[in-house]
């Protein structure tokens, strides 16, 4: 069989290979964030290692695998290797995690150790992944037709990546877990390898390059490598910006991130297919490449304008529909509207660059490997530079302007007449015209088309269109991990915004929850000297713990540096100026990473993280995390946890409670109501059976040194210890039947983020709370005192205290 008849089948194999690769990427990033954390530093280490492996693999295969080896046999061996290593990563990761947590620390040494762990897990398989395109490219020649097929291979691989992204994000991980997702990808690898061997046996001949050792790269060819590196840089930097802003527009759930990545890859795939078809017939592909880079700047301006000045104001209210799938459809269309124009052009860049540098008789593997490597190096610089440096330093607006300038520069160096060609007047005029058009056009785009990031978008996210004019947003900050805002309503209410929603406020129902969470944390333990607070936010919960006279040290763990440094200061009158309290210590870290790597013990741990539907937040609700928190408690210590009922669903709440009770079978549920209905919950757990002496707490609150605590409680309508404990809503023995169908949230499935992501626009808090209260029984085992006191307490609980 002639090689031309096999090429369409090879394209299908590369689609399957790309699908497996993206399943692995999603799974590995999810697993490794559980180990080394999900801060911007940790994500940078993971992304840099993953893409670095792809780059090295593309460069090393042509250098160390001779061109006379049958490309399909090499390709099959690579696919088998990827599958085997993926199984080893899944098997050995618990051991690697244990080693890391035993040795991990902070500072440069900690970052270095994270890089080592990421390298051990990611470099072997990604080296092989990066080698697949150069290996398969050796089935064709480095002529126009061959270059076109190389581009189609790239397009097919990217199309497979789209399928892998959607399959992993919307099905495999939502329904199953990382093991099933991994096994699916491994089966794809093995099936591709088997098919490649069968096709290899059918081939009668495979092209052999005349120059397998690679000729010296000329200066003019190096320009193309620089241009495609700049293209990769602008593409990944833009993707970082788009992901941050679109996650505000749609809601930062795991489904949103899958949609954004899928749309980006769809554009790359389609653009590469179009570019490959063009490359087959273009006499001067370099000219086409140059103008494609110029147009990238135009499409970047389009995306910037849409994201900040248009999309937030589209008349869309996501709460209208109770089915999230309809919102996903709208979000998919809006995402394509923003992402597709530029991603189409970036996709076309690769085949056009191949056509611009291809030379007859050259090793196709070496050609593809160099270009893919240059593109990937640029992508690494763009992703890390935008996320870690440019956005926190100069903001999204100016970062996008930098990308437009980079695209213009890339276009001009490609359009500049090659040094090896004789200069003539016509060529000079053409370049001068291009310089004028690109220069003036880029200047106009920078000046007019790239607006500031919408403060309304940062504050209200997907509800921007229906919240216009409702608040004075007087602070907006773009940090390394999140964009945050502070606003004031007309009645003076302060709001702290993160992930495109109000996360804390001075509203009565929010103040009540935050103060309850803080005061339960310190009033229940016998000796709450040391307290850990997960998530700073407005600082109200941490402030409530800090004013207890028995508390000697409060450790606040916050992932975003802007929050304790800036945001909390605006709430000083509500949080007792907690950040400036000398007994308070702020640690900037992912709370899970801090907990898993710290050897410090605490008398109380309270967790007030972002909503569980926010991607990554579910890591703070897993059984393994609760076990770690329990292990960090001193005898008699207590763990408290915020559980929201609004913008959630029954399945997510059941998962949170069942997972918590799995670790704390002596747990207690306290309810925070609003207008007589459920609003959110406080879960409380101890290693020992919970014993609450209401009289002793009341006596303590009457002491002079407890006056600040008593006043803090009175400000939220809690005038006594009886009022506080009358918020009792249940315990595990009451809720056993209700929780029978609950899905536990574990590290290997992160089930909560998929369940909660389906309910982020719902308002079912009252129904969920009523369902919980329907199972509530007398808590005589929890409270200390005579039967008369317990009767009195049960009567108060049934009446709901004074609320």
Write a structural description.
The protein has 3 domains: 1-208, Growth Hormone, Chain: A, CATH 1.20.1250; 218-470, Growth Hormone, Chain: A (Up-down Bundle); 501-799, 3-Layer(aba) Sandwich (Rossmann fold). A hairpin with a 5-residue loop joins strand 2 and strand 3 (494-498). The protein has an 8-stranded mixed beta sheet with strand order 7-6-5-8-9-11-10-12, sandwiched between helices. A 4-stranded antiparallel beta sheet has the order 1-2-3-4. Helix 3 runs antiparallel to helix 6 (178-202) and helix 9 runs parallel beside helix 12. With 803 residues, the protein is α/β, with parallel strands linked by helices. The protein starts with a helix and ends with a helix. The protein contains 27 helices and 12 strands.
